[in-house]
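Teaching assistant here, posting this on the class forum so everyone can see the example we discussed in section. The complex has two components, and the goal was to see what a joint structure prediction looks like when all of them are supplied at once.
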Amino acid sequence: VETCVRVRVGAEEYAIPVRHVPEVAELGDVTPVPGAPPQVLGIRNLRGEVIPVFDLALGLGAERSGEPTRIVLADDGTRRCGLAVDAVLAVADLDAADEPVDSPLLLGAVLIDGRLVGMLDVPALLDALAPDARP
Amino acid sequence: MSLDPELLEIFRQETDERLDRIIDTVLAIESATAAEDAVDQLFRDAHSIKGNAGMVGFMAAAKVAGAMEEVLERARAAGALDTELCGPLLRAADAVRGAVEGREESVEAAIAELTGRAADVPDTVAAPEQAPSQQRTLRVAADRVDRLLDAVGETVLHRRRLEHMLGPGTLDADQRLREEMDRGDVLLDELQEAVVRMRTLPLASIVGTFPRAVRDIAANAGREVRLELAGVDTQLDRVILDGISETIVHLLRNAVSHGVEPPEERQAAGKPREGIIELSAQGRGDRVAVTITDDGRGVSPELLEQAEREGSLVDVLARAGFSTATEVSELSGRGVGLDAVKRHVESLGGSLDVWSASGEGTAVTLLLPLTLSLLHVLLFERAGQTYGLPLASVLEALTPDGISSLGGRSSIELRGESIPLSDLASVVGASAPPLPERAPAVVATSSSHRHALAVDAVTGEQETVVKPLGSMLAGVPGYLGAAILPDGRAALILDAAFVARAGAARHAPGPAPAAAGGGATAPEPPRVLVVDDQFTVRELQRSILEAAGYPVETAKDGREALDRIRRGGIELVLTDLEMPEMDGLALLAAIRADAEAGSLPVVIVTSRGSEEDRRLGAEAGADAYVVKSEFDQQTLLDTVRRLANLR
């Protein structure tokens, strides 16, 4: 059992372990960063800290149904960023993610009310979101 | 001993300040109005002057200050300074000032008077429980200072938000409020400066032992070496300073033992017997470059060649802890080589760069982060977004009188100099509506390159902490970081070096990329091969041409150049005349005789300026001839551009 933040991204639902989520915030004023790849929505000032904000839908390849409204802060111990999501649904204790999935960004999935909720592998996700250094 | 004038000036100023304070304090003691810790203060000042003067080689000044220190030490132990000693101390202070200014005639008299009078004054034995408070340094964990700094940064932002909310009209309306805000400004400035000072120190604070260390290492290694210092007042985070002190000593040691040749060898090579090692520091945006340069033998051509193949001299040298000396001497830091230095600098968040030319010397540069960087930035807008450039990288902000356009490229004229102009949006790669009529331009400057950015509006100036975009956006080029605006939004701070590069790349002579929306018919810039046996000349030409947008490759002699040309893709050749293996004329002849490459444009760049050479070059089929003595960027670029257009 792990306490997780459940979020909606397009038509899909994902869960992020709260130990990786220091905070949930409004989307706020995100400054685009020209030259960055599309999954980078921009940067945002969060109480004096400059946080990169990523489009979780693009990162996961999910269908987008509307504009993101919230940022879930994700922290893997060495890096911190904002994940833009369509909605934050709940914070809840979830059973072990033992449904198999074939995404390297997910630890597994949990079945909740007949829906498959993907459990995010935060370090792997952050690796995938960060653009590669260009020469 | 020759000293960097900047360091000398710092020493003079500091000594002046300390002497002024000594005089004030002595006068206060004489008139019984001195503070409780006056004698401690005097002692510390005399002690510091002695140390500094000795370090920079003012031995007479150091000697007087030493005598003062001795007298004051006893006074401190006694708990008070006998007023009998006030006069002699004042005259000693004057003697120090004189000695620093080069007048040493009063030195001996001042010392004699001071020590003579001190011998007459009875020592009062200090009670042991009255231990003086010698230790006035407070050790604070760095993270506490960091937290303080963050809080100050937040307060500055809070203040800007307040100003923003109140607006200028309100401030005019309420006199008391305005006065209170002004007072707050002053306090905040002081607070900010105090915190910044807590975290940063000049490089000078760690160089004190270096001249001595270099002298000792040189004596041990049988070298004649002079250490020169430059830019040592450059401020660095003290955590980083602590971390690099030993690294610098190691690099100095390497420079002495493995860089500078023995005096006889130098003489034979036509160099002065005495080698020069320079330690210099220079701010570069949000980084500080600390460079150790020697004019010694450099690394071997074989290693340079290997480095060129592999792309990094640092890695080649670091790999095996290479040593260019045949024998590793006792002091050269056996076992701990450049690999350790590299790892260490990287662990501090910096990087290491090595430049070397055989026979000419080596330069090792530590590019260190300035974790704390309060920068003055100029802010401007494009497509509804605010950007900034450090003021240090801004030559000028102006509304250009006229823009000249040629072949889809624009430029403005500034004091007789033509500066290329690009839309900021196309430089960073943003989509944006067209610029307004008479759009203002911000002229960015980075080393020798200048580039003007057209923007919608220039909005102002701000002193700000530039926050890094963080490791997750490290792969996105072009930005130093972000600053927080008064309204709470984050503004991107541009890297002037990137602006100059990107601007130049989309500028002369190639087509602007699709994002720029123009000049779709201009030809691709030709690939240029630079042929010269001297590394510095090659790299100089490479940097000039690359900045102008040409792809550049290099070769170090005619043979290598010909091999490269035969593999195809080279569209223009710049070659030196005198080179080992195959010289420039032979290369030219070989090119002209080649069935495929026969019509390749060839420019001869040489130090020979004689008519005879020109004739030989022309007969061998050179398209142009640039003499190095009249060599300047513009001539070279004009020549290359002319030939590129003839293709």
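For the discussion questions: Strands of chain A lie at 2-9, 12-17, 24-26, 40-46, 49-55, 70-75, 80-85, 87-94, 106-112, 115-120. The mean pLDDT of chain A is 90. Think about how each of these relates to the inputs above.
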